[in-house]
Amino acid sequence: MEITPEIIISAARQGRADVLKEIAGNGASLDVRDEKGYTPLIIACYNNRYDAAQFLLEAGADVNSQDGGGNTALMGAAFKGYTDLAELLINAGANPDLQHGNGGTALMFAAMFGRNDVLKLLLASGADPAILDNRGLTAFDLAAQQGNADGMQLLEGVKRAI
């Protein structure tokens, strides 16, 4: 059976670390993308598949790879609020300050969607709260727009310390 990118992406989506290990063990590259530029790592993280993400990182997945829109696995974990995955990615060297096509960062996703545990983790990991998106907004501004008072408080504390 031919191992196609679709099979690898599907295994990542389903969290099938066992299948990914078998594919890698047979010499196939896990460095694939689907039509939107999603990598197995991005898909595993977006779908909260910790074991698959951990294996992919151990197998050499690029932790800072971006999809067609510029989104990273860390952005997906921040958007969804998956603190354990965000920590895994940061410990693997994820850059919290990468920006997607509209200038957004993982910190901005966490602030916008009230993922305040991820927000705290990102700030503790050195994420830059002063980065501006394409509209000139910071993570603080986005938290304010969404009424995320706890996020605003976390970000305001960092703004004063800068």
How is this fold's topology laid out?
Elements (H helix, E strand, L loop, with lengths): L4 H10 L2 H9 L14 H7 L3 H9 L14 H8 L2 H9 L14 H7 L3 H9 L14 H7 L3 H13 L1
Pfam families: Ank_2
Protein name: Ankyrin repeat domain-containing protein
Keywords: ANK repeat, Repeat
Task: Please give a structural write-up.
The chain is mainly alpha-helical. Helix 2 runs parallel beside helix 4, helix 6 packs parallel to helix 8 and helix 7 runs parallel beside helix 9. The longest helix has 13 residues. It is elongated and about 55 Å long. 43% of the residues are buried. The model has no long low-confidence stretch (mean pLDDT 94). Keywords: ANK repeat, Repeat. This is Ankyrin repeat domain-containing protein.
Give the low-confidence spans.
none
Tell me the structural class: mainly alpha
Task: State the end-to-end distance.
Answer: 56 Å
- CA radius of gyration: 16 Å
DSSP helical segment count: 10
Can you summarize the main beta sheet?
none
